[in-house]
UniProtKB/TrEMBL annotation:
Biological process per Gene Ontology, one example term: lactose catabolic process
Record flagged with keyword Hydrolase: yes
GO cellular component terms, semicolon-separated: beta-galactosidase complex
Family membership: Belongs to the glycosyl hydrolase 2 family.
Domain Beta galactosidase small chain/ positions: 807-1071
Cofactors: Ca(2+)
Catalytic activity: Hydrolysis of terminal non-reducing beta-D-galactose residues in beta-D-galactosides
EC number: 3.2.1.23
Protein name: Beta-galactosidase
GO MF annotation list: beta-galactosidase activity; carbohydrate binding
Family matches, as Gene3D superfamilies: 2.70.98.10, Galactose-binding domain-like, Glycosidases, Immunoglobulins
Keywords: Calcium, Glycosidase, Hydrolase, Signal
């Protein structure tokens, strides 16, 4: 073996001019001869030097028992995470050249894993679709600005590793790196998101060893990593040493094949052995395999076994291929793995010598499952059951650590998604840390595993260049080789947005042949020139990218993908695809949809009403999981989440990285609650409300609803008056069942509003959530909403009066109108209203508004509207007054009628008259300001999180109390926020007093500690300045938030969530209050009803 290794090194040296060491191995950096004297990181055909073949994640154990338990801390593994010596240079010419020859001193310390940009070296760069460096000239990268990080640390091997084969493992390095061990060149690797392993055995010594690493920020591989995320560098995943015997189980691959009834299975195993002894494997060495259930009981009657010699010397036929299973057996009715029931077994594979001594044992989790697509309706089938993809796109991100996530960080992400009813994560756009897949196996989270390449800034140029074929193939095949044993991986994805070409086809072909158990995905696999009707992109008939017709097949997608995949559909896009008469029966997946940038993620219910009701539609993946804000401080020390451009990075794409349904720090945002409800596995509706009969639908693929505890809660005017657990209801997957709950009703008293909450909760603790976790919920009306407002008008003293205003005085209050608007409200000497309440038609612009459909231009009459008082008149002396405003000349006007009651309360009747020829109205409502200290908010409406008319299905009406800090939603780029729909009343108080707004019908209300102008101007949360008052919006309604995308007209709300110009009326009542107690506030509400 050593002779062979040296020969290969000498051959490589002759080809690339490597410096030689005494034993014939390269000492330093190889250079490719020619005019450029090119380093390997500018040669696309060189992606690795001395790197071991990719393999599945597994550790070597000294006993079967330890392998079965799977605690890697008891394996032959030594972590090298922690502090390393570090030196940074802005370009390769300034980087240390010979530092690996001796121990360094005086260098900085840096944590490994980490991204050096977040440790104060160079800057992070955010670009969505353009390369972060110039010039763009593949495979070459800049020489004058290309950061280099040099690392070094020492270690001592465990004493019991003597005579073992030692592998140095890097989990992920961004983006190219060289490594030396004890002054000797060990190897080179590219691909920021897959492991690089090097055989370190020949370079190690007793006592202290020194490993040196040099990382180059940009290399030829950077042209394949043009993804929409922060561009950061360094050793960003774990570093470890792995010890294995000289004859080792290098890798293994299992497959499970279910029979046609999805009951029994064939378990097949293919081990791969390495022999580093330089001798033939002795007779009598054997590989053994046993499968264990979740109670650690052996499944096979006796272990599977095969001689090591026969595995190593396997003969491949000339006209066919070898059988996959070198070890194989039938398993009777194993528990199946699915996202709903992630049943796992443990495989222990061991190697014993000719005396029966254990050399090593390795293990992995096994899931028995199948994935296919129905020939009848194109739906996805897991174990024969229709399964939808409730998916999300996820980047590795932490606001402080960047890409260097801890195991706890990863676990929180996966748990959060599982708890919010997601069942698939697309690893956009690169393979994740191995621990991620381990968790997905365990929790029941399906994975679309995506190769680390995207060439967005070059389109499909490299996908059509054969000099890059090896790099494409390697990134894909190495991912598959590493992750092949994870049952959670149900789809392989060829990368993202790298055009279409033979390199894509080659990767798909390799996967299809290597792994016959999983489908292949790629977006875009669009256009098939061999088909009649194909239109090439140079043809004037070819749709523009902003035209949703470009999402149609042309005329069919490429043969090498197993599904039709599209980005960012409009609500009409699914039917456009389904109605193409091209004969394609493949499933349709919207692998990026519902662009959740800022205040967004509307229309989820409408999308899923379509997905569930049409053949071939299998679901989609929201873009995306987490805001990619990085924590930063301004000059005053105030923290905020930064985005593109905030570090001086140019060019940049600003806040286009802030697309999450959770915040940068992982806090769930309002949007994810809507997702949870739309994705929920049980849906309850009235079958016969009068008789108290529910219809319960089970949306599960295989799970029965009797597996959940079932709870009912009855609300009277928003307050829970009765809660109880009732017997679980048995509803089979995909079925519906009626349930009469009339016997559980409380006494329903007239003059009250009653609501019913139905909740399905976990019966037992699960790895991803505790007993009692709510998985599904619905709120249904038992009675009608209480409408109208009844007051007793009572004249009060007119203290001052003018043509446009007046001041009214009562025993302990004073109400002032200025220019026809309520401008001051003083109660017991406390001024509650601080600035006029006027008709208002706009909201702070959302990202969808500002960057997408641009309503400020399309609806500009309303954005430019300024109420102009036309007259202010007395209707009834001291009690009823009316102000009339022109809003848009000769086209729109508002009448406000004020009624003063005996308690000093004020009822406001709002009437808008608008010409129907006007554009749609952003908002019908009023805006004013109340005292700054009234920041404790109680309300009866949908909550507790913010909600909007097109994102309100996941929120129940009830009584909620929040301070204003938790009432608003602190979007990274400030915008419209904090709205609540279906509001019956809302109160703002301090410890002594406050003000209450009661609606005559279901209204929308919001409040901010800032002005709307400030929100529109601010670009970060630290730029929001408290106004000295609370801005209060009391609206009939505002348009929806939309969210199909954030760059075109498709981002606008659906027609049913827009407000057509016309006539609108509503009323509300304002009253000072002396208590924040909900009981007293509710009494006021009841009195008015």
């Amino acid at each position: 073996m050593k002779a062979l290794k040296i020969s290969l090194a000498l051959l490589f040296s002759a080809t690339f001019g490597l410096a030689q060491t005494v034993d014939g191995l390269p000492a330093a950096i190889p250079m490719v001869p020619g005019i450029y004297n090119t380093p390997p990181w500018e040669v696309p055909q060189i992606t690795e030097i001395n790197r071991d073949k990719a393999r599945s994640t597994s550790y070597s154990y000294a006993s079967v028992e330890d392998a079965l338990n799977g605690d890697r801390s008891k394996s032959r593994m030594l972590l090298l995470n922690g502090d390393w010596d570090f030196k940074f240079a802005f370009k390769p010419a300034d980087a240390p050249q010979d530092f690996y020859k001796q121990k360094v001193s005086g260098w900085d310390k840096i944590e490994v894993p980490s991204n050096w940009e977040l440790k104060g070296y160079d800057i992070p760069i955010y670009k969505s679709a353009v390369f972060p460096f110039r010039p763009v000239n593949p495979p070459f990268v800049p020489q004058d600005y290309n950061g280099v990080g040099s690392y070094q640390r020492s270690f001592t091997l465990p004493a019991n590793w003597k005579d073992m084969n030692i592998t140095l493992h890097f989990g992920g390095v961004s983006s190219a790196f060289r490594v030396w061990l004890n002054g000797k060149f060990l190897g080179y690797g590219e691909d920021s998101c897959l492991p690089s392993e090097f055989n370190a055995t020949a370079y190690l010594k007793e006592g202290e060893n020194v490993v040196s690493v040099q990382v180059i920020r940009w290399n030829d591989g950077s042209y394949l990593e043009d993804q929409d995320h922060w561009r950061m560098s360094g050793i960003q995943r774990e570093v470890m040493l792995l010890a294995e015997p000289k004859i080792r189980i290098a890798d293994f691959h299992y497959q499970t094949k279910l029979d046609k009834q999805y009951k029994d299975a064939i378990f097949s195993l293919r081990p791969r052995l390495d022999n580093f002894t330089g001798k033939f494997i002795p007779e009598g060495y054997e590989v053994k395999a046993q499968l264990y259930d979740d109670s650690n009981r052996a499944v096979f009657a006796k272990p599977l076994q095969r001689s090591a010699e026969s595995i190593v010397n396997e003969i491949y036929p000339r006209l066919d291929n070898v059988k996959f299973g070198l070890l194989e057996t039938e398993v009777k009715n194993p528990k199946k793995w699915s996202d709903e029931a992630p049943n796992l077994y443990t495989l222990v594979i061991s190697l014993v010598d000719d005396k029966g001594n254990l050399l090593e044992a390795k293990s992995c989790k096994v899931g028995f499952r199948s994935i296919e697509f129905s020939k009848e309706n194109g739906k996805m089938l897991i174990n024969g059951k229709v399964t939808y993809i409730y998916g999300v796109n996820r980047h590795d991100h932490d606001p402080v650590k960047g890409k260097a996530l801890s195991r706890a960080d990863i676990e929180r992400d996966v748990k959060t998604l599982k708890q919010f009813n997601f069942n698939l994560i697309r690893t956009s756009h690169y393979p994740n840390d191995p621990y991620f897949y381990e968790l997905c196996d365990k929790y029941g989270m399906m994975v679309m595993d995506e190769a680390n390449y995207e060439t967005h800034g070059l389109g499909g140029k490299l996908s059509n260049d054969p000099s890059w074929t090896g790099a494409f193939m390697e990134r894909t095949s190495r991912m598959v080789l590493r992750d092949k044993n994870h049952p959670s991986v149900v789809i392989w994805s060829l990368g993202n947005e790298a055009g279409r070409g033979p390199n894509n086809a080659a990767m798909a072909a390799w996967i299809h042949d290597f792994d016959i158990t999983r489908p292949v995905h790629y977006e875009p696999a669009m256009g098939s020139p061999k088909e009649e009707g194909y239109i090439d992109p140079s043809d004037p008939r070819y749709p523009k990218s902003v035209d949703h017709a470009h999402r149609l097949q042309n005329p069919v997608d490429q043969y090498y993908v197993d599904m039709v995949s599209r980005f960012y559909p409009g609500i009409f896009t699914p039917d456009l695809l389904l109605n193409q008469a091209n004969g394609d029966k493949r499933p349709i997946l919207f692998v990026e949809y519902s662009h959740s940038m800022g205040n967004s993620t509307g229309n989820m219910k409408e999308f899923w009403d379509i997905f569930r009701s049409r053949d071939r539609l299998i679901g989609g993946c929201i873009w995306d999981f987490k805001d990619q804000g990085l924590l930063k401080k301004d000059s005053a020390g105030k923290e905020f989440f930064a985005y593109g451009g905030d570090f001086g990075d140019k060019p940049n794409d600003g806040n286009f990285c802030i697309n999450g349904i959770v915040a940068s720090d992982g806090r769930p945002k309002a949007a994810i609650y809507e997702c949870k409800h739309v994705y929920q596995p049980a849906e309850t509706q009235w079958k016969n409300q009068q008789a108290g009969v529910l219809e319960i639908e089970n949306r599960h693929a295989s799970k029965n609803l009797e597996d959940y505890d079932l709870f009912l809660s009855f609300l009277e005017n928003g307050k829970v008056i009765k809660s109880l657990q009732i017997p679980s209801v048995a509803v089979a997957a995909g079925e519906k069942k009626e349930l009469n709950i009339r016997k559980y009703y409380p006494n329903l008293k007239t003059g009250n509003e009653y609501l019913l909450n139905i909740s399905f909760k976990l019966k037992n603790n699960l790895p991803w959530a505790a007993k009692g976790h709510e998985v599904a919920y619905n709120q249904l009306p038992l009675t009608s909403v209480l409408e109208g407002i009844k007051i007793s008008e009572k004249p009060v003293t007119v203290a001052q009066k003018s043509a446009s205003g007046l001041s009214l005085k009562g025993t302990d209050f004073q109400i002032t109108f200025t220019n026809g608007a309520l401008s001051s409200y003083i109660k017991n000497g406390k001024e509650l209203v601080k600035s006029p309440f006027l008709p208002h038609f706009t909201r702070p612009q959302t990202d969808n508004d500002r960057k997408g459909w641009k309503p400020a231009k399309k609806l500009k009459q309303w954005y430019n509207a300024v109420p102009e008082l036309t007259d202010f008149k007395e209707i009834k002396a001291g009690s009823v007054y009316q102000a009339n405003y022109q809003i848009i000349k000769d086209s729109a006007s508002v009448s406000l009628t004020y009624h003063i009651d005996a308690d000093g309360g004020l009822k406001v009747d709002y009437a808008l008259t608008a010409n129907q020829a006007l554009p749609n109205i952003p908002k019908v409502g009023m805006q004013g300001a109340i005292a700054n200290d009234l920041q404790n908010i109680a309300f009866y409406g949908k909550g507790p999180q913010e909600n909007y008319i097109d994102r309100a299905f996941g929120f129940d009406a009830g009584l909620y109390q929040l301070d204003i800090k938790n009432f608003v939603e602190p979007y990274v780029y400030p915008q419209e926020n904090g709205n609540r729909t279906d509001v019956r009343w809302m109160a703002f108080t301090n410890k002594q007093n406050g003000i209450m707004v009661v609606a005559d019908s279901l209204l929308s209300m919001s409040a901010w500690p800032w002005t709307e102008a400030n929100i529109n101007k601010a670009k970060h949360t630290n730029e929001l300045s408290e106004a000295g008052f609370v801005t209060l919006n009391v609206d009939l309604k505002q348009m929806g938030i939309g969210g199909n995308d954030t760059w075109s007209d498709v981002s606008q709300p659906l027609p049913q969530y827009q407000i057509k110009a016309g006539n609108y009326k509503y009323s509300f009542y304002i009253k000072p209050v002396a208590s924040a107690q909900t009981e007293k506030l509710m009494a006021i509400y009841k009195k008015l009803k």
